[in-house]
UniProtKB/TrEMBL annotation:
Coiled coil: none
Record-linked SUPFAM superfamilies: GroES-like, NAD(P)-binding Rossmann-fold domains
Protein name: NADPH:quinone reductase
Top-level division of the source organism's lineage: Bacteria
């Protein structure tokens, strides 16, 4: 099979298109024929070695965690999935080595689910990592409920683009940050209020909308933005970060909760998300498509941090 390989940590220069042996699924696993692979910031962070302390990496390494394709083979003991079925998956494994930037990927069956009938492979592969992150952060950890208020950073981004409509579906009041050019886009996703983070103080703007603070902050941006976001949470509320580790001491002083979340594969959650996509609740983001051979260019584009929507690698 064709695959993008990295032989060491580094930049674009470490990536190459190669022909390698097609893997076989073991017990409890499935082999997915990848038709499209989603590009996420975590991919270039892994390529550069930035997450080596969190995740053991082995070489040669195939990047990529998001995939949409068809079931090509079933391992022993797999039930509920069938050959040829259109599926999607967040293919994160304990050891980082065999990812989705390839014609085939093996994944445990408990992380694979049927993809939405109304989406193409290119559309579907943009969803798993980002939407699972939003689901697990907001609904599982923060327990967002009707009547709650939530501040979602980077509402036009990969995760924010799913978090905004998901929070609105729950029944929350949604405040999102985005640059001015993306305000209409974020409002169309369902945001009640959009703050131009480049032109106004998002803390003051949020407090003007919710004087007591919001019930939840969804921190999809780290650094100073995350640190200042603690000031927007009401007493008893929660800040969830998917970028930097949270500051429990600061949270305790403010009388709020905080939690760092790293998304986990979950077929059950994927099935729930498929239902939301088919109902039209989740809107597929804008897509920039590139062939697998341009994977290095795709990661460099992702690294700029200014992509609206998602980048997709078309595989076959």
């Amino acid at each position: 099979m064709k695959a993008i390989l990295c032989d060491r940590f580094g930049g674009s220069e470490v990536m190459r298109l190669a022909e390698i042996e097609t893997p076989s699924p073991g017990p409890g696993e499935v082999l997915i024929r990848v038709h499209a692979a989603g590009v996420n910031p975590v991919d270039w962070k892994i390529r550069e070695g930035g997450l080596a302390r969190l995740f053991p990496c082995k070489f040669p390494l195939i990047p990529g965690w998001d995939a949409a394709g068809t079931i090509a083979a079933l391992g022993d003991g797999v039930a509920g999935l069938s050959l040829g079925e259109r599926v999607w998956s967040f293919c994160r494994k304990p050891d980082i080595q065999w990812g989705t930037y390839a014609e085939y990927v093996v994944m445990t069956a408990d992380g694979v689910a049927g993809m939405p009938a109304n989406l193409t492979f290119a559309q579907a592969c943009t969803v798993p990592l980002a939407a699972l992150t939003a689901w697990q952060s907001m609904l599982e950890v923060a327990q967002l409920r009707p009547g709650h208020s939530v501040l979602i950073h980077a509402g036009a981004g990969g995760v924010g683009g799913f978090a905004v409509p998901m929070a609105k579906w729950v029944g929350a009041t949604v405040i999102a940050t985005a640059k001015a050019a993306n305000h209409d886009y974020v409002r169309a996703l369902g945001a009640d209020h959009v703050i131009d983070y480049s032109a106004e103080d998002f803390v003051a703007a949020t407090r003007a909308l919710c004087p007591e603070g919001v019930d939840m902050v969804f921190g999809t941006v780290g650094g100073e933005v995350l640190t200042r976001s603690y000031q927007t949470v009401k007493p008893g509320g929660i800040l969830v970060s998917i970028t930097d580790k949270t500051d429990r001491e600061l949270a305790e002083r403010l009388g709020i909760r905080c939690k760092y979340v790293f998304v986990k594969p979950d077929a059950g959650h994927l099935r729930r998300l498929a239902g939301l996509a088919e109902q039209g609740v989740l809107r597929v983001p804008e897509i920039v498509e590139m062939p697998l051979s341009r994977a290095a260019e795709a990661l460099d584009l992702s690294r700029t941090g200014h992509v609206r929507g998602k980048i997709v690698l078309t595989v076959g």
